[in-house]
Amino acid sequence: MTSKIQKLLSDLKNTDSATRNHATHELWQIWYRDAGKLAEHELDQGTRLMGENLLDEAGKVFRSLIKNYPDFAEAYNKLATLLFMKGDYSESVFECERTLKLNPHHFGALNGMGMCLFQLARYDEALTCFQKALEIQPYADINREYLARCRGLLN
């Protein structure tokens, strides 16, 4: 991990919201650009298709990216997001795991995996994901919300 990424990850824990927001934005930019310009362009194309609710077409783009750039964590993360949107939570968890294998600090994949596990009523596992996400991004309120929901359902 580069010193720039370490600094940005540290900045996610800063009490200043502007510093945290900047770090979040910069990390997403690094992750999007990780496989180069062509891959970034294709990722943008798939994301646009997903935004237009053309999920099958977007899935083809993300799967092609994964085939051509097997170490591109963000391609797996986008596929996980698409699968979540389709309600295919188990497959989305699998893609989140693949994302995290390549990028263990990917707070988006941790949150996404927690959301999927929550939908699957696997609350213990979801709780663990949200806790890990909070370790990286302690001010992310959505993770606190879901932690509380999981705990409430486990009691």
Short description:
The chain is mostly helical and 155 residues long. 79% of the residues lie in helices and 0% in strands.
Question: What can you tell me about this protein's structure?
Answer:
This protein starts with a helix and ends with a helix. It has a domain at 1-33. The chain has nine helices and no strands. Helices cover 79% and strands 0% of the residues. The chain has 155 residues and is an all-alpha fold. The mean pLDDT is 96.
Estimate the helix proportion, in percent: over 70%
Estimate the strand proportion. Answer: under 5%
Helix-strand pattern, N to C? Answer: HHHHHHHHH
Structural class: mainly alpha
User: What integer value in Å does the Rg equal?
Assistant: 16 Å
Structural features:
mainly alpha; 9 helices; 155 residues; globular
Please describe the topology of this protein.
Layout lengths: L2 H9 L5 H17 L3 H15 L3 H14 L4 H13 L3 H14 L4 H13 L3 H14 L4 H14 L1
Helix pairs in contact: 1-2, 3-4, 3-5, 4-5, 5-6, 5-7, 6-7, 7-8, 7-9, 8-9
